């Protein structure tokens, strides 16, 4: 249970940081309304969406340990200075996850792993690292409504935007089905996640142990 709570706390913080990144860059790009909407804070209430913020992320974490950022920042694109700013805004969220990956990696390598190599807390933080890595990879997939697609959407023709717009409401569910029903896709994704974790110097088995501890209801 302790592992579950620690991971959820870290995850809520990461969602707020992810959405703050979107909002801050939007403000720099010309959308002054983000401050009025309360997005320039780390208060999760401002980013809450019943399904996107809580239900889907928890389903993904419980079933597959995949980090699905679930906030909601509404940008007034009419106020932005250029299409380039729209791309910067979309990539700012994953960039925040990347910063958190660096911080978590340093905490693990410099303190937790050397001093508490087998502690449940170390495993929990290692699992949080896995979630952050998976969140970056997942978000950069160019499928609506993920950030990877939103980064290239401003450069598409109006015709293609209109064609792809209906996909946005189903994109997450399509990914959900693919990850749990198409084994090669699932294996390829997790191979990348484990490789990155190992590359960062954090044994992937620690994250897996953290995932098992996270699922306290199975113990």
The N- and C-terminal alpha carbons lie at a distance of 10 Å
List the quaternary state of the chains: single chain
Shape: globular
Biggest β-sheet strands, sense, barrel: none
| Poorly predicted ranges | none
N-to-C SSE string, H for helix and E for strand: HHHHHHHHHH
Number of domains: 1
Structural class: mainly alpha
List the total number of helices: 10
Rg on CA atoms, Å: 18 Å
Estimate what percentage of residues fall within beta strands. under 5%
Secondary structure: number of strands: 0
Helix proportion of residues, in percent? Answer: 55-70%
Give the rounded overall mean pLDDT. 87
Report on this model:
With 219 residues, the chain is an all-alpha fold. The protein is built from ten helices and no strands. The chain has helices at 2-28, 33-36, 50-64, 83-115, 120-139, 147-152, 158-164, 171-181, 183-199, 204-214. Helix 1 (2-28) packs parallel to helix 5. The longest helix has 33 residues, at 83-115.
Describe the structure concisely for a colleague.
The chain is built from ten helices and no strands. The protein is mainly alpha-helical. The chain has one domain (2-218).
Highlighted features:
mainly alpha; 0% strand
